[in-house]
Amino acid sequence: MKDFKLAIAECLKSKIEDLTLDEIKELIEVPPNKDMGDYAFPCFKLAKVFRKAPNAIAEDLAKEISLTDDVSKVINLGGYVNFFVSKSEMAKEVIKKVLNEKSNYGKSAFGDGKTVIVEYSSPNIAKPFHIGHIRTTVIGNALYKIYDSQGYNTIRINHLGDYGTQFGKLIVAFKSWGDKSLVEANPIPELLKLYVKFHEVAEEKPELEDEAREWFTKLENGDEEAKELWQWFRTESLKEFKRVYDLLEIEFDSLAGESFYSDKMQSVIDTLNEKGLLQESQGAQIVDLEPYNIPPALIMKNDGSTLYITRDLAAAIYRKQTYDFDKCLYVVGSQQNLHFEQCFKILELMGYEWSKDLNHIPFGMVALEEGTMSTRKGRVVFLEDVLNQAVDKTREIILAKNPNAGDIDAVAKEVGVGAVVFQELSNSRIKDYTFSWEKTLSFDGETGPYVQYTHARCCSVIRKYGQDIDSNIDFSLLQDEGSFEVLKLVESFNQSILVALRKNEPHIITRFVLDLAQAFNKFYHDNPILVDDEELKKARVALVEVTRQTLENGLALLGMKAPHRM
Predict the structure, then answer these.
(1) Mean pLDDT, residues 403-423 taken together
(2) Quick one: 124 and 186 in the same domain?
(3) Would you state the pLDDT for residue 102?
(4) pLDDT grade for 371, boundaries at 50, 70 and 90
(5) Are residues 208 and 71 in the same domain?
(6) Which of 185, 194, 177, 182 is nearest to 126 (CA)?
(7) Nearest Cα to 214, choosing from 159, 246, 171?
(8) For this structure, is 133 an active site residue?
């Protein structure tokens, strides 16, 4: 598709010798008001070169630039040269490209030949897959889809929390109070009860904490009973997790959790020793990061057991050796900022130049209306319950509004799950928020169901049209403001994806599909589509199909479906 920004930069380049074409293109902006044009070039940087005020430079350039097929009008406003794109040319370029590329529209080869790892979700074995996990899960999945759409070889890793002292606690709890048949019947809730009971009893009997540490050390040393119980906890938990991933239609390329690196940590410790980085502190082993204004990192406890950071160091080295990544993203909550700062710094000090390619993608935390979630106290909201209730609520709404709608169960799942996903991705990932059932299950305003309904509305128009859609239309019939606003947004789709990729911010795509849905609904309200005038009808239906396809492609990047009927 024609790059209108580049075409405008080329118009300017013939009059500005002191800037390169790329520099000119980089300076071009989108005006805050559509009455000011589609693009604007600021002349302030040229004041010294031309020895004139920016206003005067803009006035001269506006007079000198010749109109082209791409540019219908040039004016100067203040110190800016403002350009109006040819509406019919925009319509032709956008419609032909979308109708030709279909589900590939928006994709590019931007990352061709590069490998990106996205680590996300990573729930703890034997603990609830609760609403707090949805952020890492859906943000990570959207980032995977965004990078994949731009040609990157993208690897999805679920770094399961399947190792650590909590397993010592769970082994003690199960051996003390557990019932195998109850756990097998209802794994996570029963294991949660045991975990909560351990902490309740440990308040009165602190010696239980020492017993738990002993059992974890046994696990690290390969004790058969410890390994057997740990493996059973892991297997039962994964069955539960799979139901949630199936609801979200999320898959992974690797489920290599913390335990996978248990035999790879000694070489990390050996290298730290060889580099002179490991120091003893009160019987424990640390890396002193004080010279870099970072607190010391604890690598090994005084009982010889390892920590999360030890396994993360081993994991990063293994991933580089295995995948030779260009970038590795860790989609983990912002409360782990210090952990990753320490981890990345240690890898740098170990001499790994690629440590600069490791990126922590933090996000804000989820709280409950009644207070902070706590696994130890059993105060959690199960993610599966949230998703299932969203589906049930959607089914009720569909039955009330359109009881004859096709496969109601399938649509209820697509819209209900989509509502939860969309809400999670609708704000900047770094913001904290309080989980609210009412807000999550609302179908009004700027929501996922609103965008999905807009897609279904497009499908309804196309079904009523009942003919093949092609780009053999009169593009001059799409010069009204409503059509042009829709087409400008569609044209910017790939640009929005690239901004989301560079910022690792899926909410940019959420905002894009919302803006497109709103622009289309305004066009739909103001312009009858299935009119008697055949040429006008063909042109407007083509616009409807272009909108539908772009909405579908945008929702797919968020991990959402685009229902054809609602």
Answers:
(1) 89
(2) yes
(3) 97
(4) low
(5) no
(6) 194
(7) 171
(8) yes
Which pLDDT does position 376 carry in this prediction? 52
Task: For 188-318, list the strands marked E by DSSP.
Answer: 278-281, 284-287, 297-300
pLDDT range class, residue 2, cuts 50, 70, 90:
confident
Please report the sign of the dihedral spanned by the C-alpha atoms of residue 284, residue 360, residue 138, residue 256.
negative
Chain mean pLDDT for the chain: 91
Counted domains in the chain: 2
Active-site annotation holds for 45: no
Distance CA 438, CA 171 (A): 39
Q: Which residues pair with 331 in a beta bridge?
A: 361
Residue 339 appears among annotated catalytic residues: no
Q: Which of 87, 130, 169, 455 is catalytic?
A: 130
Q: Give the full edge-to-edge strand order of the sheet including 80-85.
A: 39-42, 80-85, 71-77
Cα separation of 342 and 349, whole Å? 10
* Domain-ending residue, one of 85, 102, 129: 85
What residue numbers bound the domain in which 317 lies? 115-263+307-368
- pTM for the model stands at 0.91
Angle of helix 165-177 versus helix 224-248 axis, rounded to 10 = 100
Q: Which residue is catalytic, options 5, 133, 320, 561?
A: 133
In the predicted structure, residue 249 carries a pLDDT above the cut 70: yes
Say how far apart CA 173 and CA 154 lie, in whole Å. 40
Q: Are residues 66 and 133 in the same domain?
A: no
* Segment 69-86 mean pLDDT: 93
Are the C-beta atoms of residues 15 and 65 closer than 8 Å to each other?
Answer: yes
Q: Is the pLDDT of residue 372 over 60?
A: no
List, in order, residues 6 or more apart from 364 with CB less than 8 Å away.
135, 333, 334, 429, 430, 431, 432, 433
Among 92, 96, 127, 507, the one annotated catalytic: 127
Q: What proportion of the chain, given as a percentage, has pLDDT over 90?
A: 70
Report the alpha-carbon distance of residue 236 to residue 241 in Å, rounded.
9
Alpha helices in 275-405 (DSSP H): 308-323, 337-349, 383-401
- Lay out the sheet containing 358-361: strands in order across: 153-157, 115-119, 327-331, 358-361
Least confident of 127-131, 224-228, 501-505: 127-131
Position 562 in a domain:
no
User: Residue 451 pLDDT more than 80?
Assistant: yes
Supply 343's token pair. 């981890």
CATH number at residue 207: 3.40.50.620
CATH number at residue 79: 3.30.1360.70
Core vs surface per residue 366-391: b (16+ CB within 10 A) or e: bebeeeebebeebebbbbbebbbebb
Q: Are residues 205 and 251 in the same domain?
A: yes
Q: How far apart are CA 141 and CA 403, in angstroms?
A: 33
Q: How far apart are CA 144 and CA 154, in angstroms?
A: 6
